[in-house]
Amino acid sequence: MSDSQSNRINYQKEAQVIRRSILLDAPLSQVWNALATSEGLASWLMLNDFQPIVGTRFTFSAEPQSNWNGIVECEVTQVDELHQLAFTWSESPSLAPTLVTFELREHEGKTEVCLIHSGREHLPEDYTSTLDQGWGCNMLRRLAALIEME
Amino acid sequence: MESSSNRLAQQARDTSLTAIYSAVADPTRREMMELLGTRELSITALARHFPVSRVAISKHLTVLAQAGLVEERKIGREHRYQLNPAPLRQAQEWLAHYEQFWQEKLMTLKAQVEEHPEDYP
Question: Which residue in A65, A78, A104, B33 has a CA-CA distance of 20 to 30 Å to A113?
Answer without folding.
Answer: A65
